[in-house]
Amino acid sequence: MSFNLVLVNPQIPNNTGAIGRLCVNAGATLHLIKPIGFDIDEKAVRRAGLDYWEKLDLRVWENIDDFFEHNKITDNAHFATTKTDRPYFEAAFKEGDYIFFGSETKGIPEDILNRYKSQNITIPMTKEGRSLNLAISTGIVLYDAIRQNYSTFDKA
Q1: Sign (positive or negative) of CA dihedral 62, 68, 70, 71
Q2: pLDDT at position 81, please?
Q3: Gap between the Cα atoms of 75 and 20, Å rounded
């Protein structure tokens, strides 16, 4: 079992394509929560994901309630946001954990962040920037989770 990357309402097809490629190489499942700002069959998604898209373990959910109804979220989740001071590298990731990222324009809905406040994480940045690209952010956090669990990472 590996990790689950959850994108809440992604807006940019190139980011989602790159994240799909990341998930294939990391052995992670990608969860997309509608509404999505593009058609997942769009050429831009496939181009960014190259030939990896068919190998992707992809789950698409009708909305956030549908996702929560079908996935048991307890202390097995981490919520990436700029609205916390807790750096991602202080989180203890376990195989099978869910790592949530919000849309490029709005982030994760505030009610969800508040519900799981102790599980909010952030990527430290200088005061010069507001946020990082979504695909880069997912890679930073996912590979730290893999680093923490490297002894069981399926490298085959």
Answers
A1: positive
A2: 96
A3: 25
Neighbours of 154 (CB within 10 A): 8
pLDDT at 156 over 60: no
How many Cα atoms are found within 13 Å in the side-chain-facing hemisphere of 55?
Answer: 13
Q: What is the DSSP letter of 96?
A: T
Q: What angle, 0 to 180 degrees and rounded to 10, lies between the N-to-C axes of helices 134-148 and 13-26?
A: 10
DSSP string over 112-146: HHHHTGGGEEB----TT-S---HHHHHHHHHHHHH
pLDDT at res. 46: 66
What's the pLDDT tens digit per position in 81-140? 999 999 999 999 999 999 999 999 999 999 999 999 999 999 999 999 888 999 999 999
Q: What single DSSP character describes residue 97?
A: -
List the structure tokens of 17: 């394509």
Nearest to 141 by CA among 83, 68, 63, 81: 81
**Residue 4 is inside which H or E element, if any?**
strand 4-8
